[in-house]
Design goal:
The chain is α/β, with parallel strands linked by helices. The chain is built from 13 helices and 15 strands. The strands form 2 sheets. The protein has a 10-stranded mixed sheet.
Length: 477
């Protein structure tokens, strides 16, 4: 009996040690997400004027992703795609979410991330993670109301957020809400304030569990406001004050990233995975009345935000794994924010959702520098500024198409409802164009005629992928 008891105790201790060892291997995870940061807005991605030393350092010591994609060319669906690992069309978020009011049943102003969607923080909580999001939310139309699920419903232990943009500007915003309680005006720039909140949450976290932290900046989305010393710095290098304010805005964001990175290296330097990206491409200058500061750069890419050409959703991507041996250098692997969920689940040991995902894990990229994605990336943005509403990237190739029915080309649509379902589902793809992204990231030459076999294969794949997505797209009724 005595020997049996000792053996049982030994086995229990051994199991506990193995369990602790497994928990120690779970990385802390931090996701920085900018708002409207263009592919060419960082100095490490080619901007000739803006100085971003913190992110340049991260890119130099980590992985710089030159083929990094957001889930959509506009904010709300892009964020929903990141959180769920699925095309935002499946969740019914097709365009940016308008602000609604309690009791509003308008099919556009009632759009929101629905309560049954499974998100990154919810999955990581099942394996012991503490979770927090700070910054912009924009996944509900009715914010801070029980009428729609709020950030806490989707697995965040702590949240500090605004519905959409920082208001009235990035300077001293007054529309933050912390865990359901209004914060009031803050004496800081938005990016610095959310980093302060992140560090304060980490300082006061109740357990030593690994954590998942989202830092979703408002910068450099309008309405822009920047520190005057940085504006003065850029004035001699700018066309006007508005451009200097944009340049200063990006650098101020970079300073905020640098502050949090120093904190993480000091306090969580053993095992913290950090990813940096943007929700979509840069805004077009003066596209709307308040876009007077929108001097973002698409770099070599075609189009801007709201386009299905590359500049709409190819964005800066940087990965740094603090304290762990991992691959470093510039990578042309095709990576999407849709891939974050399956990657994080694999690293943390969490089970994937039962439903199909559009993203796939890129852990091999972190460990070996190699990642050949099997799943094509499909964007179906019915409100695109350019004519092609559908685009797909697979391998080195990208195919695009317009949508057409018996009455002509499909008009712009910003939400799929019971009123327009038949019109959208009855439209067929037409006017295909094909681009070799390996040699023509600018989409300057349509090579469909020169590559008939590739075009045929890409069209067949696109038909299949589009039909699957359309059949599974949520219809608001």
């Amino acid at each position: 009996m005595k020997n049996s008891f000792i053996i049982l105790i030994g086995l229990a201790l051994s199991s506990l040690l193995v369990s602790c060892k497994e928990v120690e291997k779970q990385p802390n995870i931090v996701v920085f997400l900018c708002d409207d940061l263009g592919y060419g807005d960082l100095s490490s991605f080619g901007h000739p004027t803006i100085q971003t030393p913190s992110l340049d350092k991260m890119a130099a010591s980590g992985i710089k992703l030159t083929n990094c994609y957001s889930a959509a060319p506009v904010c709300s669906p892009s964020r929903v795609g990141l959180l769920t690992g699925r095309s935002p069309n499946r969740a019914g978020v097709y365009d940016y979410i308008l602000k609604g009011e309690p009791g509003n049943t308008n099919l556009r102003k009632g759009v929101h991330l629905q309560e049954d969607e499974i998100t990154i923080p919810a999955l990581l909580k099942t394996v012991g993670y503490s979770t927090c999001t700070v910054g912009k939310w924009h996944c509900t139309s009715i914010f801070n109301s029980p009428e729609q699920p709020q950030p806490g419903h989707f697995g965040f232990d702590h949240w500090l957020a605004t519905h959409n943009n920082a208001a009235p500007t990035h300077k001293n915003p007054k529309n933050f809400v912390r865990n359901g309680e209004k914060v009031g005006e803050v004496d800081a720039f938005s990016c610095q304030f959310v980093v302060d909140e992140a560090m304060n949450w980490l300082d006061n976290k109740e357990s030593d569990n690994p954590f998942y932290l989202q830092v979703w900046f408002h910068e450099p989305h309008e309405p822009i406001a920047s520190p005057e010393d940085l504006v003065e710095k850029y004035l001699p290098m700018s066309e006007n004050r508005e451009q200097a304010e944009y340049f200063a805005n990006v650098e101020n964001m970079d300073k905020a990233v640098g502050r949090l990175m120093q904190y993480l290296e000091k306090n969580y330097g053993e095992n913290t995975l950090v990813l940096f990206s943007s929700d979509n491409g840069s805004e077009t200058l003066n596209r709307y009345a308040k876009a007077k500061h929108s001097y973002g750069s698409p770099g070599e890419l075609k189009g801007m935000k709201l386009w299905t050409t590359e500049a709409g959703f190819r964005v800066p991507g940087i990965i740094s794994w603090i304290g762990q041996e991992s691959h470093t250098g510039t990578s042309d692997a095709v990576v999407s924010s849709l891939d974050f969920l399956p990657t994080f689940c694999e690293l943390a040991g969490a089970d994937l959702p039962e439903h199909a995902l559009d993203g796939e894990s890129f852990t091999s990229l972190l460990k070996t520098g190699e990642f050949d994605r099997e799943k094509p990336l499909l964007w179906c943005f019915y409100n695109a500024i350019n004519e092609q509403k559908v685009a797909m990237r697979y391998g080195d190739w990208k195919i695009m198409a317009r949508l057409k029915n018996e009455k002509g080309y499909l008009p712009k649509v910003n939400n799929l409802t019971s009123q327009n379902e038949a019109m959208v589902k009855g439209a067929e793809m037409a006017d295909f164009s094909l681009y070799n992204m390996k040699v023509d990231m600018s989409e300057s030459v349509d090579v469909a005629n020169e590559n008939p076999e590739v075009l045929k294969e890409m069209k067949e794949l696109l038909y299949s992928e589009y039909e699957n997505l359309l059949n599974d797209s949520h219809i608001w009724r």
